[in-house]
Amino acid sequence: MSPDTILVDQLSKTYQVPEREGGFGAAVRSFFKRKYKDVKAVERVSFRIEPGEVVGFLGPNGAGKTTTLKMLSGLLHPTGGRASVLGFTPWERKPEYLRAMTLVMGQRNRLSWDIPAADSFLLNQAIYRIPDDEYKKTYKELNELLELEPLMKKPVRNLSLGERMKCEIAAGLLHRPKVLFLDEPTIGLDITGQARIREFLREYNRLTGATILLTSHYMADVTALCERVIIIDHGQLKYDGGLTDLSRKIAPFKLIGVMLADAATHDLSRYGTEVQNEEDTGKRYIQVRAEDVTRATSEMLSTLPIHDITIADPSIESVIEQAFNQ
Amino acid sequence: MLNIFKRLWQVNWAEQWQYRANLIMYLLYWLVSPIIYLAVWTSIANSKGSVNGFTAGDFVNYYLVLLVADQLTSNIVIHNFAYKIQDGALSSELIRPIHPMLTNTLVNNLAFKALILIGFTPVWLILTLIFKPDFSGVTWQGVLLAIPAMLLGFIVGFLLSAAITSVAFWTTRVYSIHEFYYALILLFSGQFVPLTLMPKLVQDIAQFLPFQLFMYYPVQLILGKLTTPQIIQGFVVGFVWLGLSILFFNFVWSRGVKKYSAVGA
Question: Is B119 an interface residue toward A (CB < 8 Å)?
Fold first, then answer.
């Protein structure tokens, strides 16, 4: 047995998607002969994750993140390659495996909307065969971290999005899974709600040593929780390594922002590549290699009518965006 | 396992209770066609004296018992499961270490049944007051035999519906397949017309099909219309279909679930 908790080897998933042109004639033809197009959602992706790691799984929409998570949690059968989680092949869906992992999807509910969360929790206790004393202990811990008690008696449909998400995550953790697959666990939450869930996940990882693989569109989730990130795009692995190394490897640049007396007239291209910064349109920005920053700034200060100048690291968002575009 | 079923029952009962208005619509839908057949056949029998030996009174007895058998043996798997495959809601059930169909959906159907019986019972009593059936031929032995027969009918029907519903793993048009299946039930279960009034060929086929277990067979058991060899044959056919429907369901489910694409998030 390998020491890795998650082992993914050349994992692939190709969907067959029916293809049809618009119009009546095409509709009739497709009735008799369906055309299919192969869509490679995940293509020969390989990685290993050790016990207790928290790994951010990143990529643009449609990159294959969710498909990979669905394969690892046993929902989807791959079309190629293999994977092993805790020594199990996920899609065999052995009960022992399903009892040892959880999948929380921010856009999907596990809790029944019509009944209070408390009833769904008790159902999970039965399904996962959690002994009473263990259940009470886990519930107490979850309640301390997430303040669930006031939410438990209301029908789930009457909870706010943030309240529901707390209950969803708690419901997914009652059986103390060793592996957590989290797909957009903070989607739609406000800043404090996101911070809360993040704080909780960090604490859960610290207390239980669980392995966590999470996707998120909020980079703050990733920077707060993950030391390591895996980036995929168009179904292919693009990067696997430390979050701090990412900006060094992918984008060893700094951003210099200047506010000029007569902004439009000066040509900045001789100092570096001019880039757009949508958050700050008052300044013009150029991107220069980290080692050229000193030279570029001193040249600019001596030749241009500068009111204000800033030097900053590119945001992690823009670094990752660059990684996607490579 | 017992504990799981207990909790599933609590959750599903509470859920069904939320939709009790919806249940009344189901109940009406369920009652309409047998009552129409009852009305049509009794008026034909009245005008001609009898239909192949079936008097108006015979039709009343037959259909009033059939209403009970239909309530007890039918299921709503297609309505509460197919959409979960199509919109991806099944994902949250598939990651649980219990079989989605044979635990949650089964209990959901039973909770539905229990709740609908509360509405059905007074309606049925009122119908007996209107139609005044003659149940003098009903024996305890017949009723006692009909109970396991209907249980068998429910289980076979549940598994067959579950297998057909699982076709939704391949096609989004599973409802039309189910409509065809439902037409077979209508014809061969004895709902449209008591099977003894069918052409000889149809009767010969029907006695080896599973559909008579849902209505005709238990109804005739209760009314004491079957000979001992017929009773034995009915149970033998029932158990053979139990085995076949288990195999059929397993076959479709195990292949279908590999096709599951967990659409949506």
Answer: no
Confidence tier at A45 by pLDDT (50, 70, 90) = very high
Report yes or no on A209 lying in a domain: yes
Nearest CA of chain A to the CA of B253: how many Å? 14
| A146, A288: one domain | no
Classify the complex by whether its ipTM is higher than 0.90, answering yes or no.
no
Chain A positions touching B91 (Cβ under 8 A) are 70, 75, 103, 105, 108
Instruction: Compute the distance between CA of residue A98 and CA of residue A179 in angstroms, rounded to an integer.
Output: 10
Dist CA A250 CA A322 (whole Å): 7
Residue A99 is nearest to which of B15, B88, B97, comparing CB atoms?
Answer: B97
- Chain B nearest CA to A298, separation (Å): 50
Cα gap B232→B217, rounded to integer Å: 11
Residues A139 and A212 in one domain: yes
CATH number, residue A239: 3.40.50.300
Q: Are residues A41 and A160 in the same domain?
A: yes
Same domain, A147 and A290: no
Task: Give tens-digit pLDDT for B55-64.
Answer: 999 999 999 9
Give residue ranges of A with CB < 8 Å to any B CB: 15, 66, 70, 73-77, 91, 93, 95-96, 98-99, 101-103, 105-110, 112, 114-115, 119-120, 122-123, 125-128, 183-184
B21 touches chain A (CB under 8 A): no
**Kind and range of the H or E element at A127?**
helix A117-127
Between chains, do A76 and B261 touch, taking CB under 8 Å as contact? yes
Enumerate residues 6+ apart whose C-beta is below 8 A from B26: B76, B112, B116
What length is written for chain A? 326
Check whether residue A197 and residue A258 sit in a common domain.
Answer: no
Q: What is the pLDDT of residue A263?
A: 61
Is the pLDDT at A278 greater than 70? The verdict is: no
Read off the CATH number of the domain in which A283 is found: 3.30.70
A223 and A297 share one domain: no
- Are A118 and A256 members of one domain? no
B96 and A98 in contact by Cβ < 8 A? Answer: yes
CA–CA gap between residue B163 and residue B140 (Å, rounded): 35
How far is the C-alpha of A73 from the C-alpha of A246, rounded, in Å? 27
- Beta carbon pairs, A and B, within 8 Å: 79
**A165 interaction partners in chain B (CB closer than 8 Å):** none
Contact B95 A184 (CB under 8 A): no
User: Would an 8 Å CB–CB cutoff place B23 in contact with chain A?
Assistant: no
Higher pLDDT, A114 or B163: B163
**What range defines the domain where residue A283 resides?**
252-325
Task: Count the domains in chain A.
Answer: 2
Q: Assess whether A167 and A111 both reside in one domain.
A: yes
Task: Say whether pLDDT at A279 is over 70.
Answer: no
Domain boundary among A247, A264, A284: A247
Q: Smallest Cα–Cα separation from A255: which of A226, A276, A228?
A: A276
**pLDDT of res. A281:** 66
The reply to whether residue A114 touches residue B6, judged by beta carbons under 8 angstroms, is no
